[in-house]
Design brief:
This protein is of the alpha/beta class. The protein has 14 helices and six strands. It has two domains: 61 residues, 5,6-Dimethylbenzimidazole Phosphoribosyltransferase, Chain: A, domain 1, CATH 1.10.1610.10; 266 residues, Rossmann fold (3-Layer(aba) Sandwich). The radius of gyration is 20 Å and the shape is globular.
Amino acid sequence: MPRSDLAVTNPLAARIRHVIDTKTKPLGALGRIETLAEQIALLQGTDAPRMTQCTLTIFAADHGIAATGVSAFPQEVTPQMVMNFLAGGAAANVFAAVNGVALQVVDAGVAGERIEHPQLIDRRIAAGTANFLDGPAMSSEQAQQALDHGAGVAHAATGEALAFGEMGIANTATAAALAHKLTGRPLAGLVGRGTGLDDAGLDRKLDILTRAAARTGALSPEQAMAEYGGFEIVMMAGAMIETARENRVVIVDGFIASVAALLATKLQPETRRALVFAHRSHESGHRVVLEELEADPLLSLDMRLGEGTGALLAWPLLKAAAAMMTDMASFETAGVSSAG
């Protein structure tokens, strides 16, 4: 619904728009910050929104499709990076610390032995998904368990906004296959270099995913997430659905998180109102997913790391948007003459 139409039918929307438009600035002069402020205020149901605290949750899991060689990195990198997150050594840790964001890590299904660490949230479903080239990545029961675990983790997290990141070797392959089945968009536009595949590796990845996709026909979202999903992607979707249900902002990171957001909106369309898209990833499939979601990210920094790093960089913009509504003077309170 266009913003002007919403203001006519929703008194709160009209009041929020009035507050924004009567701040001491030319009409619309703060551009996307105004749009962001309006979204936050509508979600919180107030013309004085708050953005004071954010938590980043990184969901980690492994993927059976990695056995086909679709990633430039070996699968043992996943648990190694989990330990790096827990030790505070990753880019996400640095960006979280500098922006005052709490960070937590969830084992959604990392391959190998169970990781024992007092700060790790254990929601492990299995030691990685099955290889979806040969059959379903997970059972329908495991998919529902992943959704439920994600919702529970989100419910327990603190903040007016929650950000979600991911770690898992071969998860760009999983995300591309899942996005293809959720949208019907061609795989060629969704498959990218991931962790840095060369041309031959990219061709191999596309060939493997094309064969895997041919294994099934049209699927419902529930079927697609079981056939081609990853435990961390499905958990992120469950977390996003719950965050939106609680009228809190979801800060969506890059390609893989956006595929989780796409899944969330397919399962629960109302989730879309809570989604703020942080950045435009350098991963080629992200553009396609953003088009499907009719999303225009706040930032474009040629990043493709994941981990929630782009979401963390967008957090200060959310704080600024809310503060603009609550702390910035209006023409009336400041005694400044307005236009007209």
